Amino acid sequence: MESGSAVVLAAFVAFMISVCAVWIHSGKRGLPPGPKGWPLIGNIFDIPKGAMHVGYMKMAKDYGSDVLYLNMAGSPMLILNSVEAVEDLLVRRAAIYSDRPRFPMIGELCGWDFALSLIKYGDQWRRSRALFAKQFSPSSVQAYHKPCIVENVHLFLNRLLNAPEEFQDHLVLLSAGIVLATTYGIYLRDRNNPYLQSAERAVQGFSEAALPGAYLINTFPILEYIPEWFPGAGFKRKAKVERANVKGMIGDTIEFVKKSMADGTARSSMASRALQEMKDDKSWSEEKETLLQNVAAALNTIILGLVLNPDVLRKGQTAVDAAIGKSTRLPNFDDEGKIPYVDALIMEGLRWRPIVPLGLPHYTTEEDMYRGYYVPANAIIIGNTWAILHDPATYGSNVDQFCPERFLNSDGTLSSKVPYPSAAFGYGRRICAGKGIAQHQLWIAVASLLACFDISQGVDGETSGAEAKPSTEYVNKVLSYPSPYRCNIEPRSKTVACLIRSS
Ligand code: HEM
């Protein structure tokens, strides 16, 4: 038999064994409720179409259970739809719920397997996470990150002033600009920067490869062993291209740092500091590339919330003016924590449309029992962040509305009764490692937007002059963010425009 056919046959046999194992287990033990599914493929056809997070929330209601079980063609999967279930399992039993499933297409094939968010739970993850935490220690944040964030926010305000209609591009440039500046000391002038383009190419490949259903290999990892020439193995050729992109992104940026250090033009960055300390330059620097757009996605949602709710914009502007004076100066980090309305506005953005509505999947390392249900080892565990942040019992009956006031007392101070939407950043030991720095970025960007700009609905055509409601559609890939929408962004006064230009 030809070697390729032998591999395929072996792959098929192994796959059948794993499917049978799950069926035998599911017959014997009481798994959580969920749709019945089909032989072999299990519940593949029960995956909700469109916004999966909304579909799973509805499925939980239909089955009268916040914990759902689905069989993904042999891989067990639990969806946790309540804060109670994620706290019980992902937080209190984190010792066995903190692994990640394998992502063969993204990880091994496309070359993203170094990324902290994909690393299997264990010593390597602990070391990488500790290094990451060190890079973002309070003293580093104060000394290096905050000045760099402020510089990038001022560039963003200037871009917004010059070309307000391109605000979505500016958001990406802001988010990616902070990553490239803090990590490599690369400061972006525009989207044509070769380092940004190289990172964007690689990240685009990541998003495509991670899309549920985009590649069969994500559902059937065993296909990894199919040879490249085999019919249907196009994913392997695609992976080869992506792998080169990822390698290029990492190699080029590190080369830039080394060269600029050698000729004395380097600006302080995580890479330059690590290289100076003669540390391994592989273990820490690349993770943030996967995250080029997360802060952009969150800001994009907050701007959409402001466009749709002019009263929220007005209250935000009034609150910022009261704290720093109207058009006297731009906000800075000394103002952080002193304007509760801004904090409430950001919390509401994270809650209303969480940018990772199904979080990143966790994975069990041991079997377990929960509320009398059997939880298999090697099960994918999804925390349905959307369901948790849209629970009326926690956030009130108006959960679908964009309403920062839910986080405030009647005297305008932050309420202790409504919890911070921390599910937006994930759970337990795998909670977002950049949560603190992301919160700082969001704060200074939102406070600056409120201080400087009026934001309103676009006009519907040239003749009618009526205000056009922006699209409220969302793109749901790995990240969830608003589809392109139109709005008007204008400086609040000539004085503020001068402040921006001189920043
Ligand atoms: C609004 C902005 C952000 C949001 C909403 C967000 C959200 C998330 C979520 C939901 C996860 C998965 C957590 C889990 O598995 O339970 C995650 C993981 C992660 N995030 Fe963020 N993130 C944001 C910004 C950032 C930034 C700016 C950085 C880096 C500077 C970052 C670094 C990471 C890392 C390294 C992980 C992987 C952690 C691990 O697997 O141990 N994030 N993030």
Summarize the structure.
The protein has helices at 3-28, 52-63, 83-91, 94-97, 105-109, 123-135, 138-162, 167-184, 194-210, 216-219, 234-262, 270-276, 294-308, 310-324, 340-352, 385-389, 392-395, 435-452, 494-501; strands spanning 67-72, 75-80, 362-363, 368-370, 373-375, 380-383, 453-459, 467-468, 474-476, 480-482, 487-491.
Helix-strand layout with pairing:
Layout: H1 3-28, H2 52-63, E1 67-72, E2 75-80, H3 83-91, H4 94-97, H5 105-109, H6 123-135, H7 138-162, H8 167-184, H9 194-210, H10 216-219, H11 234-262, H12 270-276, H13 294-308, H14 310-324, H15 340-352, E3 362-363, E4 368-370, E5 373-375, E6 380-383, H16 385-389, H17 392-395, H18 435-452, E7 453-459, E8 467-468, E9 474-476, E10 480-482, E11 487-491, H19 494-501
Parallel strand pairs: 2-6
Antiparallel strand pairs: 1-2, 3-6, 4-5, 7-8, 7-11, 9-10
Bound molecules: protoporphyrin IX containing FE.
